[in-house]
Design goal:
Layout: H1 2-33, H2 41-51, H3 62-96, H4 109-122, H5 125-129, H6 134-156, H7 162-186, H8 191-198, H9 207-226, H10 228-234, H11 238-243, H12 248-270, H13 276-288, H14 292-316, H15 326-350
Length: about 350
């Protein structure tokens, strides 16, 4: 009986993850096909298959291999990782702060990253240091410094309680928004570049950004996974967590730091992209339940697929090869989708 229940549970878990995984693969395939340079589906399949070690004939047009591997596939993988990071960070913030509207930007980390990037762009640090990674690196430093300031302020205000953390995050976000406006006002020549970067996108991103992002993603996900049991217990409240032997303050510190690291790394390589951290966790929670051991995996897969699909839309929706910032696409699609989620939940609650 127990073996039957165990096998049934495994089949159910696979059935819940498989559609999200297939959606992500479909979005990546579409990303490899989309673009002004023509590439047939058979050629794209051959290029990817050869990269995976399969003995397939090379495309007749050698440029297709470079376009697919060095541009489109790298960009799609980066978008998938950023979407997964934002979705997992959103699920963690909503669990730790017990606030359904918390998202990866609640603690002001995105504001710090945006301010760091704006400083880099206005000071032309990329030219000074001779590397395009100067701006993402400054964004990462800005996000990290903001997190440290928010946590320090929370401790001074009475400890890492969710109320003080949220208030400190709001203060930090407001202050950094003012600083960002000041930077833009003092550097009119850089305003267009700063605004375009802040709106979010993957244009021109590639191997270097992926190399910067992946270690942060790995460290953040590993730290969160080690505390996933504590994340479920924190939902019961401070008193019950203590009764169950969980050091709530330490667990909250690790989880907030890890989720903020994911957020800062995502913003550093893609700019500010909203709604992914709200939509993916809420949709998965509504469909599959709220146990974090599976919710985090489902949110990561859903967030990755969502952001790659949004990036494909951003690249193809305008005529003439023009490209929208992907943050605009996620906002335009995410707002109505999130409203539908809220209304569906309200209707379900009534029935």
């Amino acid at each position: 009986m127990e073996i039957h229940q165990h096998n049934t549970g495994r089949v159910r878990a696979v059935a819940r993850v498989l559609p999200l995984l297939l959606a992500g693969l479909a979005a990546i395939a579409a990303a490899c096909l989309a673009g002004s340079y023509p590439a047939a589906a058979t050629d794209v399949a051959a290029v990817v298959g050869r990269a995976l070690g399969l003995d397939l004939p090379a495309p007749a047009d050698a440029a297709v291999t470079a376009v697919v591997l060095d541009l489109r596939l790298l960009r799609a993988l980066l978008a998938y990782g950023v979407g997964a990071a934002l979705a997992v960070a959103g699920a963690v913030f909503q669990g730790v702060l017990r606030n359904p509207l918390a998202d990866p930007f609640t603690l002001g980390v995105s504001g710090g990253a945006a301010f760091g990037a704006a400083l880099s762009l206005s000071l032309s640090l990329a030219v000074f240091f001779g590397t395009a990674l100067a701006t993402p690196a400054c964004a990462l430093l800005g996000g990290g410094a903001t997190l440290a300031a928010v946590l320090a302020l929370s401790r001074l205000a009475g400890g890492l309680r969710r109320e003080t953390v949220v208030l400190a995050g709001i203060v930090a976000a407001t202050f950094l928004s003012a600083l960002l406006s000041l930077v833009k006002a003092l550097n009119e020549e850089s305003v267009a570049g700063i605004v375009f970067w802040i709106m979010g996108g993957f244009q021109g991103r590639g191997r270097a950004e992926l190399a910067l992002f992946l270690p942060c993603l790995g460290v953040g996900l590993a730290a969160i996974w080690l505390f996933v049991r504590e994340l479920d217990i924190l939902l019961l409240g401070e008193t019950q967590a203590r009764q169950l032997g969980v050091a709530a303050g330490r667990a909250r510190l690790v989880l907030l730091t890890a989720a903020s690291l994911l957020t800062a790394a995502a913003v550093a390589v893609s700019g500010v992209i909203g709604f992914v951290g709200l939509i993916a966790p809420h949709a998965c929670r509504r469909l599959y339940g709220g146990e974090h051991g599976t919710l985090l995996l489902q949110s990561a897969l859903a967030g990755g697929a969502l952001l790659v699909a949004s990036d494909v839309l951003a690249r193809t929706i305008l005529p003439g090869g023009a490209e929208l910032p992907v943050g605009v696409v996620t906002a335009l699609c995410g707002g109505p989708f999130f409203c539908a989620l809220l209304l569906t939940g309200r209707s379900g609650a009534r029935t």
